[in-house]
Structure formats: C-alpha cells, structure tokens
Model the fold of this input.
Amino acid sequence: MKFFTDFFPVILFFLVFKAFDVFTATAVAIAATVAQIAWIKWRVGKVEMMQWASLIIIVVFGGATLIFHDETFIKIKPSILYAFMGCALYASEFIFKKNLLEKLMSEQISAPPSVWRTLLHAWTWFFFGLSVLNYWVATNFDTETWVNFKLFGAMGLMVIFAILQAVYLSAHVKNEENLSNELNPDGTPGAPSASTPPAKGAE
Done:
C-alpha cells in the first residue's frame, strides 16, 4: 500500500500522458502530489522531509513547465529530486553526524552501525547515479521515451535496488539475532550446549 502511495503521482503522470499530453499530465501530477501529502498528513499525522521536498520540487518545476509551456522543466525534475535525496543522505552523515536511514528505519529494524553506514552510502550513490541517468535520457531522447523510462526504468531500478538492500539487511539482522541468542542477559557468552566437549582439564 505504501509503495503504491509513494509512486501514485508517477503512475498517474504516465497514464495521463498516454491519454493526453505532457502538460496535462504535469498538471495532474501536481494535483496528485498535493493530494498525496494532504492524505499522509491527515492519515499519519507526519510528513517526512523527502515527501515535502518532492512536493516543493514538483510544484516548482511542474509549474515552470505549465507557465513557460516548456517540457524541459518537468523532464529534469526527477534529476533534481534524486540529487536532493543523495545530498540529504550525504549531509546527514558528514555534516550532521547522523544516519538518516537508521533514523527513519531503526524503529522497525535493528542492525549494527556498520550495516546502516553501508546502506547509507549505497543509497547515496544510487540516487546520484539515477539523477545523472534521468538527465541523460531527458536530454537525449524524445518525451515519450523519457516518460517510459520514468515509470519502468527509474522505478524498476529503484525496486530492484531496494530488494537487494533488503536482502543485504536481512542477512545482517539474522546474524545479529543469532549472536544475541547466544549471549546471556548480562552480555556474556551463553552456556555451551550438551554436545560441546568440556574444556581440557575440566574433567
């Protein structure tokens, strides 16, 4: 459900573009994003920083597309958003000395700091790379090709990357859980099992 909500404006943009044109699709995408944020605010009570950023960027660049009747603005909008996300993740560690991913997900998942650091770096460079890729497609191909890439290419890459990150994270979470199960409540190693041979000289 959350996945559909997050990508609802993108899917709607694609459908309206196929039925009408890029300018109608842009207007609908702006309205859909505003409605999305309003719904999240009403239902959850809190809108995340990235969601506010997405709203501001679609309003600014989508609005510029409608005002100047120039599709270039909406086509480079994803690059600006991806670059912002990458910069936000980078800044959270190197400027604010915090891990933004850990802050957002630590209530649901427990993992070692080194794992959160690896995930942060991976997502940072993924967003930077996706920003460059979108700009290349937007400036070298026609609008229909870019719209197809926006839905199937960029979203597909994001889903695949998220799955790979989930696999990596789950493996380390399992390792941490196994380690914690082998420890006593005071943090010392647990008692050896019955099959464990006694130490030499302990007979």
Helices lie at 2-19, 22-43, 49-68, 72-94, 100-105, 113-140, 143-181.
